[in-house]
């Protein structure tokens, strides 16, 4: 992630002893913390431990460093104490969740739907009791930490624009995550990709409803709902959106070009589900593109200011025509 170092906010703790953990790339001759190449990130956190457990970390690290594998014991290293494994697993899970959330927020903020997985490659978990000398956690598993390569758009100011999103407790909307999954399998499993893409559109709208009308969150996410096109045409205009396209007195809308392709995609989804029909790559690309535009438009109505530049050119033109037509009718 462009060499940016991500820090998890250290939780308050009581007691004298603590251990700092770092997830970073493992390279010989490099003392952690390591400021890695582009797309690498390092994450630091602290965990309170007793003096006894701290000693377990020191002893287990010493034993593992002295272990000499040969043909008789290859791949079977010394087993660390349970106290070390339990803390390492707990910290691993917490840091992984933080890194994944951060990477997802970046892909959303940057506007990446075609990168597939947001995290890959191998890195490791290290520990330190003084923040200066770092050692591999004994018996630790490898960790996937390298974010997918991406190019920053001109309006993206780096991690400074991600920090407020993290601090506010925001997560990347699920609809965007699902669309990225659909993109990942669009060549290998086009029918599955279509099903996921349409689901992304439906979930994206329900997320908007729950964001704008918190009291309706449970109904939006759990109760059966009308067909997507009906909701976009009849329910969206009634929502108390936080931003409006065309002006403050404009009713929220989705342009016809997006609605038409979504309707086509829903029909193809039903045929694939009930009849097992295949879908052409061109049609799938068209549907995925329409879902992508829909999600960005819905984000506009939720008042995320950066998303307007993510909407495709043809859809922007269709929206402009709609706005001009409404203005002409009002004269």
Characterise this structure.
The chain has 331 residues and is α+β, with helices and mostly antiparallel strands. The chain is 47% helix and 10% strand. It has ten helices and six strands; from the N terminus they run E-E-E-H-H-E-E-E-H-H-H-H-H-H-H-H. The chain has helices at residues 51-66, 82-110, 163-167, 174-184, 190-212, 217-222, 228-235, 256-275, 281-301, 313-330, and strands at 6-7, 18-24, 43-48, 119-128, 135-136, 143-147. Strands 1, 2, 3, 4, 5 and 6 form a six-stranded mixed β-sheet that branches. Strand 4 and strand 5 form a beta hairpin. Helix 4 runs antiparallel to helix 9 and helix 5 (190-212) crosses helix 8 (256-275). The longest helix has 29 residues, at 82-110. The radius of gyration is 24 Å and the shape is elongated. The model is unreliable at 1-19, 21-39 and 142-149 (pLDDT under 50).
Task: Give the key terms.
single chain; 331 residues; alpha+beta; 47% helix; 10% strand; elongated; disordered N terminus
Outline of this structure?
With about 325 residues, the protein is an alpha+beta fold. It has ten helices and six strands, in the order βββααβββαααααααα.
Shape: elongated
Q: Bin the helical content.
A: 40-55%
**DSSP summary: helix tally:** 10
Could you give the distance between the termini?
50 Å
The counted number of beta strands is 6
* Share in β-strands: 5-15%
Report the biggest beta sheet as strand number plus sense, adding barrel if it closes: 6 strands, mixed
Along the chain, the helix and strand elements come as: EEEHHEEEHHHHHHHH
- What does the average pLDDT come to? 77
Rg of Cα set:
24 Å
């Amino acid at each position: 992630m462009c060499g940016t170092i991500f820090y998890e906010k250290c939780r308050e703790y009581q007691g004298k002893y603590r251990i700092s953990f770092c997830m970073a790339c493992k390279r010989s001759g490099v003392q952690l913390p390591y400021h890695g190449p582009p797309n690498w990130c390092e994450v630091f956190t602290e965990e309170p431990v007793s003096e006894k457990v701290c000693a377990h970390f020191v002893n287990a690290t010493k034993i593992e460093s002295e272990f000499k594998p040969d043909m008789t014991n290859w791949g079977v290293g010394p087993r660390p104490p349970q106290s070390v494994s339990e803390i390492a697993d707990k910290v691993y899970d917490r840091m992984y969740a933080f890194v994944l959330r951060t990477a997802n927020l970046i892909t959303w903020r940057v506007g990446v739907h075609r990168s597939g997985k947001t995290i890959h490659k191998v890195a490791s978990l290290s520990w330190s009791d003084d923040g200066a000398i770092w050692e591999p956690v004994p018996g630790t598993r490898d960790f996937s930490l390298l974010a997918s390569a991406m190019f920053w758009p001109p309006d993206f100011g780096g991690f400074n624009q991600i920090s407020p999103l993290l601090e506010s407790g925001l997560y990347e909307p699920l609809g965007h995550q699902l669309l990225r999954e659909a993109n990942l399998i669009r060549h290998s499993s086009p029918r599955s990709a279509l099903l996921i893409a349409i689901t992304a559109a439906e979930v994206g709208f329900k997320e908007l409803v729950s964001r704008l009308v918190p009291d309706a969150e449970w109904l939006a996410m759990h109760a059966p709902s009308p067909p997507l096109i009906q909701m976009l045409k009849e329910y969206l205009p009634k929502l108390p959106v936080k931003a409006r396209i065309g002006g403050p007195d404009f009713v929220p809308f989705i342009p016809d070009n997006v609605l038409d392709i979504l309707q086509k995609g829903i029909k193809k989804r039903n045929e694939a589900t009930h009849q097992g029909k295949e879908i052409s790559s061109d049609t799938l690309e068209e549907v995925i593109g329409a879902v992508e535009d829909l999600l960005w438009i819905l984000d506009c109505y939720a008042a995320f200011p950066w998303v307007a530049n993510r909407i495709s050119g043809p859809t922007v033109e269709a929206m402009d025509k709609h706005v001009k037509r409404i203005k002409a009718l009002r004269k």
